[in-house]
Specification:
The protein is mainly alpha-helical. It is 64% helix and 7% strand. A hairpin with a 2-residue loop joins strand 2 and strand 3. Helix 1 (5-25) packs antiparallel against helix 5 (91-111), helix 1 runs parallel beside helix 6 (131-155) and helix 3 (44-67) packs antiparallel against helix 6. The protein is globular and about 45 Å long. It starts with a helix and ends with a helix.
Length: 158
């Protein structure tokens, strides 16, 4: 059986995020990258660092769901991640980490058989957490953070 249109769209969207993120961050100066739109909101540098870290978590989740029957999926602790100062991290390095991990994610998704999209994991926040659900959530996660970057750039005239 062929992948559904939705599975193809999700995979293509995830691939396209790489180009979009690169284009959105290209040519920005350090002030633009470091400026937080509000006191408790992330800067563009922090968003990219988060995307890089989270993508590595997603690769591990997907691999676990493919190799183990219904594995426990750890909740991603955004607050613990954000407690560490990521503003000094190199954005190009984090962008490359994101790209490498995202390519692993999309390569994995492209190779899935139809039945593999339905493999499950036990996630504390989601009922029926399948690979398809994980991919859908990742796509929504991307759109949310890309929108944040867009809003920061608009706010600061970039």
């Amino acid at each position: 059986m062929a992948k559904t249109q939705e599975q193809k769209k999700i995979t293509n969207d995830l691939v396209h995020t790489i180009e979009t993120l690169q284009a959105m961050t290209e040519g920005l100066g350090e002030v633009q990258l470091r400026t937080r739109p509000e006191e408790n909101k992330w800067s563009i540098k922090e968003i990219v660092a988060h995307l890089a870290a989270f993508e590595r978590v997603m690769v591990a989740r997907l691999k676990a769901m493919l190799t183990t029957d219904n594995p426990a999926i750890e909740r991603y602790d955004t607050l613990a991640w954000a407690a560490v100062d990521h503003i000094e991290e190199d954005i190009d390095e984090n962008l490359q980490k994101f790209i490498i991990a995202r390519k692993k994610t999309t390569d994995l998704l492209k190779k899935l058989k139809d039945k593999d999209w339905l493999r499950t994991g036990r996630h504390s926040e989601y009922q029926n957490y399948t690979i398809q659900k994980a991919a859908e959530l990742l796509d929504a996660h991307d759109r949310n953070h890309l929108k944040q970057i867009e809003n920061i750039k608009k706010r600061f005239g970039s």
